[in-house]
Amino acid sequence: KWRIITFLSKWAPGTDEDLGAMPCCPAHVTKREAQRIEKAARLAWRAVSGHGFGRVDMRMDSKGRPWILEVTPNPDFSPTAGLARMGRAAGLDYTKLVGVLCEAAFARARMTPENTERWEISQRMAALSENGARANGERRGANAEAPPAAARPTN
Asked: Distance (Å, rounded) from C-alpha 147 to C-alpha 136?
């Protein structure tokens, strides 16, 4: 079994390196080891001022101590990547994982006073725009009719 992920194990399915580096998710660790791993990951994430989602890659030595290899603030987000695999291990299918991450990002964005003020302004502007359109007999949004072909810009 390969002890570290190589180019071939990551990008060449079916090679000896790929087959020898199959991930084990969730990892087979004791409760104490899991606590150490989580603590190390959280400390590493804070050290790089991480926000939202990310991944902390580490290895454990023979004494059960985690050693951080890297902190990845923008890991592969595809349905077959490690982040999705970790989500499944936590009981989240890909759609649910994306939803949870998006909601967390939206909640974080709404927490700042600046964003709250911008949101309120954009809501007032949208209401004014919609009210003005209605007053002029215009239709806006998903149900609005497309302009006639002659009125559309051409390339």
From this structure: 16
Tell me which residue of 57, 50, 99 sits closest to 73, measured CA to CA.
Answer: 50
Is residue 1 within 8 Å of residue 19, measured between CB atoms?
no
With 0-12 / 13-18 / 19 or more C-beta atoms within 10 angstroms meaning exposed / middle / buried, residue 39 is: exposed
- How many other β-carbons are positioned within 10 Å of the β-carbon of residue 14? 8
- Give the separation between CA 120 and CA 113, rounded to whole angstroms: 11
- The single-letter code of the amino acid at 143 is N
Site of tokens 């390339």: 155
Over the stretch 26-48, which tens digit does the pLDDT of each residue have? 889 999 999 999 999 999 999 99
Higher-confidence residue of 101 and 21: namely 101
Could you tell me which residue, 3 or 27, shows the higher pLDDT?
27
Half-sphere exposure of 136 (CA within 13 A, CB side): 9
Q: What is the DSSP letter of 137?
A: T
Phi and psi at 140, nearest 5°, equal: -125, 160
For residue 137, the model assigns a pLDDT of: 54
Q: How confident is the model at residue 64 (pLDDT cuts 50, 70, 90)?
A: confident
**Among all chains, which residue has been given the structure tokens 């600046």?**
114
